Structures are given as structure tokens and as C-alpha cells.
Amino acid sequence: MTYETVANYAGTIATVLFGVFFVGMLIFVFRPGSTKIYEELARTPLDDDEIKD
Known about the structure:
53 residues, 2 helices, elongated
């Protein structure tokens, strides 16, 4: 195998792996039931009742 062939295979494999990772992250973020968790996390900075000096 030449360097160019290996580089082509590596580029193709990396593109496929990153694509699968991206789709997996989309499924994880937009799964049913995650809205409540993200809304709670978004309000966390506003829920601080203590004033620290």
C-alpha cells in the first residue's frame, strides 16, 4: 500500500466515525424526556439563594 492509499482510507474512516458520533450526540441531546433536565440545568445559576461575600 502506498501512503496515498492509506491516507484515503484513514480520511474515509475518520469521516464515518465523526458522522456516527455526531448523529449519536443528536440522538442523545434530543431524546424524549431530556427537556426537563436541560431546563433545570439552565436555571441553576438563577437559583442561588445565598449571597457570598
